[in-house]
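A reminder from the course coordinator: this example appears on the midterm review sheet, so study it carefully.

Given structure:
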């Protein structure tokens, strides 16, 4: 084999990896994280200057299959071509391939959605959204935050953001704001689901619960991995407009201020957020947290579908209304001092 044909062969393999990653809607960093390798390793594969190990190549193929990156009906041929071009030292395990494709066919069917009951408006029957408020707090009165509500409404309904974070210190009103905006925009979604993470539930059981809600019936397929659960969840998020609210995400995160990293055993939430941010779908994950998740920081931007809103103190007029509702007495100066003393924090007041 001549040097030129060797380089061409390397380039061919790199192109295959690039096409598969792009078809999976993953960045180089996202693919590297899922495979447990460095970003530079993925860069080397796509440049044709290095090759994955057999173990990583198998994992890569499994991920691409879960993300529907191969052409339907041509999976076997395309996988064999990738393996051959990778020139690894062990032959393709045909038994593994057969089992992998069988498992993929068994789990490819998405359960039928729960039927929505019709509601009647001025224009006639209109499907009402599937709603599962879970243990969302009741917000009987809500003061101020009109600018924040308008901004969130714009992000969710006009700009179709895929991930929106409401951030702030404890008691500043993150959950109340999330509940209020959730109810305001619910009729613009096919499904609205609220889940509190205050008690730090593991990610996999939570995903199973979400999938049962969206399916409207017990699941009949085997979900034996986090990746398979996420793949099925995002089939729903692509085919329907879902608003998924995750409250108190900081319960699954390290306590170190500014870390933003998930606790050991809770990395699945990071995978969920990264996939929600990076893959194309028509739903939105709305979260509240005291800290910004590490996975979202590099993906945010004024022109990206990933945004965050950090709440400051409640304005003085809203604080006055709150004190009046709670029948707090005192002079105007005393009330102003109280508001200043507690930094406009509604829970503290």
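Designed residues:
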């Amino acid at each position: 084999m001549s040097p030129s044909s060797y380089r061409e062969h390397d380039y061919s393999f790199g192109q295959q990896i690039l096409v598969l990653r792009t078809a999976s809607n993953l960045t180089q960093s996202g693919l590297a994280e899922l495979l447990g390798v460095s970003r530079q390793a993925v860069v080397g594969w796509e440049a044709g200057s290095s090759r994955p190990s057999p173990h990583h190549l198998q994992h890569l193929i499994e991920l691409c299959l879960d993300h529907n990156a191969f052409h339907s009906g041509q999976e076997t041929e395309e996988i064999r071509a990738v393996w051959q071009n990778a020139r690894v030292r062990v032959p393709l395990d045909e038994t593994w391939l057969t089992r992998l494709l069988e498992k993929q066919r068994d789990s490819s069917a998405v359960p039928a959605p729960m039927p929505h009951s019709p509601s009647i408006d001025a224009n006639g029957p209109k499907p009402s959204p599937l709603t599962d408020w879970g243990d969302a707090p009741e917000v009987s009165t809500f003061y101020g935050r009109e600018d924040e509500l308008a901004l969130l409404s714009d992000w969710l309904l006009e700009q179709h953001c895929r991930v929106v974070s409401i951030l702030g210190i404890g008691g500043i009103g993150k959950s109340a704001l999330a509940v209020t905006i959730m109810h305001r925009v619910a009729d613009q979604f096919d499904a609205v689901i609220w889940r509190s993470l205050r008690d730090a539930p593991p990610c996999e059981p939570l995903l199973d619960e979400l999938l049962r809600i969206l399916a409207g019936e017990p699941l009949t397929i085997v979900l034996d991995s986090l990746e398979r659960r996420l793949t099925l969840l995002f089939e729903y998020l692509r085919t329907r407009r879902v608003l998924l609210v995750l409250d108190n995400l900081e319960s699954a995160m390290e306590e170190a201020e500014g870390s933003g990293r998930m606790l050991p055993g809770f990395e699945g939430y990071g995978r969920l957020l990264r996939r929600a941010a990076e893959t194309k779908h028509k739903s939105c994950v709305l979260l509240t947290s005291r800290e910004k998740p590490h996975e979202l920081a590099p993906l945010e931007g004024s022109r990206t579908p990933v945004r965050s809103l950090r709440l400051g103190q409640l304005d003085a007029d809203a604080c006055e209304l709150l004190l009046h509702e709670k029948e707090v007495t005192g002079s105007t100066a005393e009330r102003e001092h109280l508001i200043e003393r507690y930094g406009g924090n509604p829970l503290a007041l």
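The beta strands are 118-121, 124-127, 130-132, 163-167, 191-196, 242-247, 284-289, 306-310. Residues 173 and 346 are 7 Å apart (CA to CA).
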